[in-house]
Amino acid sequence: MANAVVHLVDSWRAQASLPPPACSPGDPFLKPCCRPTPPALLFASLLAALLAACAAKGPGPAAVGPPQRSVQIQRTTYGVAHIEAPDFEALAYGVAYAHAEDNVCQTADQLVTVRGERSRFWGAEASGLLGLRSLPNEQIDIYIRGLMDDGELALAESRTSAEAQAMARGYVAGYNRFLKDRAADPLKPLPAPCAGQAWLRPMTPADYRRLNELAATQFGALALADAVVAARLPVPGAAPPKPVALREALQALAGYRLSDAPPGASGWAFGAETSLNGRGLLAGNPYAPWRGADRFWQMHLTIPGQLDVMGAGSGHSPVVQVGFNQDLAWTHTVSTGQRFTLHELKLVPDDPARYLVGGLAERMRARTVRYEVLKADGTLESRLHTVWMTRYGPVIALPRAGLSWTAQTAYALQDANTWNVRATDTWLAINRATRVSELQAALRQQGTAWANTVAADRHGDVLYADASAVPDLDAAQLQRCAASKAAAALATAAGLVLLDGSRADCQWRKDPAATVPGLIPLERMPTLERRDWVQNANDSYWLSNPLLALDGVSPMVGPVGVPQGLRTRGGITQIMARLAGTDGLADHGKVGLAEVQAMLLMNRNEAAALVLDDLLAACAAPSEGLAAARPAVPPRPAAAPSPA
Fold it and tell me: Can you give the pLDDT at residue 286?
């Protein structure tokens, strides 16, 4: 498959591409040890092994256009984009351009979502994806228009680094440049799903911030988006709702998938004491959808003398989220930490729009949003809806679960990742880190909104860390601040955190060490730096290395002493067998590239390994007792003779 090269220059005018040279193992654009990886292998495993082996990149093709401000995008085998730029704004410009080449219709669809315009183009009843759930377009539009606060997001972005702000500008401009180039080139039309569509429009800075807000909150507030839409001011004099049995309430909550296991992923890191060459070795197996904004997209990013990193990102990240540089490799899994809390509000008598905190009344804020709906006759209808806000966040209503907004009580949701725009700074620092201690320092920004991190470096150190955004509540506070009896029972059974919102001493704690007030600081989150190995497979932190106990961590981060999932159990079993040299892969008890690849791809079924021997033994046991208890089966009637 031939290479393809495009250069984008400082005037952002299209330049003639170089003739596509043949892709070969000697391609000077690629590091000798960093061959292009098939997308299927990227999703199955992102292996960064023997990190010191990656040599410096040779000179690339000659630049086209003014050298002071040019972006080079080179496509190699399997279409992987290798992007080189002189600065961070230009680099993000190239990332957005190349990403749009592969995903423009996907991005355009997501932009319709974050603008709250799905009903306008596709009708109110049709559905779309909001985070991890499919919802009617009308509910999506109301939620987006009611909850996306462009002023707060812009303020939060203004507090990020100059580099992160430059990358945001570059990404928006790069996507828009792609649309402009395709509109001017009839030989390169846009893909059919979005070509010529009215909803295909340029990206704005506000759009970009909304895209990232959606990614940050998908394991939090988005899970209850339709409950936000369902919250309506009680009608005066209305009869109170009937009590809901716990079983019925749990069945109602099941549809929200709050207690579902997160999307699967696993990461193993082996350090100097367990690797064959005494350096770091990482096996990352991140799972992500094949379609949609969360799909992984592979890239190689270079700013000469400042950045050289390869890996993948999801959403609309201008930096690598799972990947490696010449010194360090890292991957992520989904943390078990809680992303939001619910607060039971005691309302002021005869005024259900006011609630009490510490004995003082506060008024809810009504946000009335306007949105347009495409009707069957092709005309647009304007509609209004009011979303209600509190000091904690939006009011929600889950009547079938017993969480109704009545004249006496309401429930509000507080999300730890609201206005979390720290992702670019966090991953940019990780992209440039040279050892796991520097990566751990980068994690202090808590921009990895809902993820664990597993990493290894060339020095032989390995790291497990949960630096995700988790509300700062300890076990004693959770017990002291429980809501009313029925609500507390539901929360316990459903795995929710439901606090008494009327008490001033039941707010999230604000530790001065925290990067964000109200979140648990990294010093009190589970982190583990070692020289042997660590692992995680979406279960809690506590068995990241079974040889070391991790205690004193808030139960908000995850459970301890509970049965682990099959991938965690299987991974630990494989690791221990490899280190004991009993897995048949090699006589030694070390882990090299060949061993970790075999471990990852051996297609072991942990459930079968646990039960198969006993099951076969049971099947082979004498069956007289079973036969005697089995009801008699009437004889099968003889077949009728066939006609002559």
Answer: 87
Q: Do residues 482 and 499 touch, judged by C-beta distance below 8 A? A: yes
Q: Cβ distance 596 to 587 under 8 Å? A: no
Cβ proximity of 306 and 325 under 8 Å? no
Q: Which residues pair with 275 in a beta bridge?
A: 591
Distances (CA, A) of 348 to 351, 362, 365, 406, 482: 5, 9, 15, 11, 20
pTM of the model: 0.86
- In whole angstroms, what is the distance from residue 260 CA to residue 304 CA? 44
- Taking the C-alpha atoms of residue 497 and residue 341, their distance in angstroms, rounded to an integer, is 5
pLDDT at 30: 29
List the structure tokens of 186: 């009839």
Instruction: Give one DSSP letter per residue of 374-430, joined into a string.
Output: E-TTS-EEEEEEEEEE-SSSBEE-BGGGTB---SSEEEEEEETTTT---HHHHHHHH
Residues (pLDDT < 50) of the chain are: 1-2, 10-67, 628, 633-644
Helix (H) or strand (E) holding 299: strand 297-303
Phi, psi of 464 (to 5 degrees): -120, 135
What pLDDT is recorded for position 288? 82
Q: Do residues 394 and 412 lie in contact, with contact meaning Cβ atoms separated by under 8 Å?
A: yes
Amino acid 521 reads P
Write phi, then psi, for 15 (nearest 5 degrees). -115, 160
Note the pLDDT of residue 24.
Answer: 32
- Residue 593 · residue 585 · CB < 8 Å: no
Question: Distance between CA 83 and CA 79 in Å, rounded?
Answer: 12
Q: At what angle do helices 162-184 and 88-114 cross, to 10 degrees?
A: 70
Q: How far is residue 199's CA from residue 162's CA, in Å, rounded to a whole number? A: 32
Residue 197: per-residue pLDDT? 97
CB-CB neighbours of 602 under 10 Å: 12
**Could you say which DSSP state residue 10 is in?**
T
Phi, psi of 316 (to 5 degrees): -130, 55
Q: How far apart are CA 97 and CA 93, in angstroms?
A: 6
pLDDT digits (tens, 9 = 90+) for 562-593: 899 999 999 999 999 999 999 999 999 999 99
Q: Which residue's structure tokens are 């690849």? A: 597
